[in-house]
Amino acid sequence: MSFLDSEIWIQLMTLIGEVTFFLILGMLLAAVALAIIAAASITRGKFYLPQILIPGMVLLEGLVKAFCKLLGLDDKDLITFFITLRNTMNTKAFSETPVEQRAVFLPQCLRSAQCPANLTPEGLKCRNCGRCSVGENTAWLEKRGYRVFIVPGSTFIKRMVKKYHPRAIIGVGCLMEVKDGIDMSDRIGIVALGVVNLKDGCVETVADWGAVRDAAMLGIKHSSDPVDFHGPAE
């Protein structure tokens, strides 16, 4: 009798099958629970069990999305909730990081279609021509000690992080770009806050500059001049 026909092999396969079944069942139940918690948090505007939600959604994102759809939530609702949750969880650590160890990453799509800026190894260098709001807000951020990068993609972000080693960043972009940026920051141990654009697209998008400035001022007790952080974006 071969080993594959032996009692030991049969018992081993039975054990593996049972363990696999209970693992799958556990994952499904966990995904259902996370989807219910996320749905309740979104509909009521309050975070429930954030310490469980974040790792759970990272590990079981696909399943959680599927069950959230069954509960009437779309991907946009869930991603927006994820970004808001991460921002809330990261606010304290961001506030405690010195400004000189922070950076801001802006997408190049914010610039005017007639932008005269040139692409350099560190991204676009704004000429502050006044054709869009990037120059004014970049100057405001730099005045407060931030490194500001206007980048065409994640490759530039990784390059600048590797070169300057910021401990905390503010990432601006469309919904998925911000989520992906927060995920990437988590993997490399950087505290990240995400600000989603008010208007998406490939050209002349609109940033929520009020939210960007609010985030930038976290942990900064005094500014050199008064600024309306809640002013309307252009």
TrEMBL record:
For the keyword Membrane, the answer is: yes
Q: Which InterPro entries match?
A: DUF116 (IPR002829)
For the keyword Membrane, the answer is yes
A Pfam family hit: DUF116
Query: Transmembrane segments in this chain: where?
Result: 21-42
Q: Keyword annotations for this protein?
A: Membrane, Transmembrane, Transmembrane helix
Q: Which domain of life is it from?
A: Archaea
- What is the protein name given in its UniProt record? DUF116 domain-containing protein
Species this chain originates from = Methanoculleus chikugoensis
Organism placement in taxonomy: Archaea, Methanobacteriati, Methanobacteriota, Stenosarchaea group, Methanomicrobia
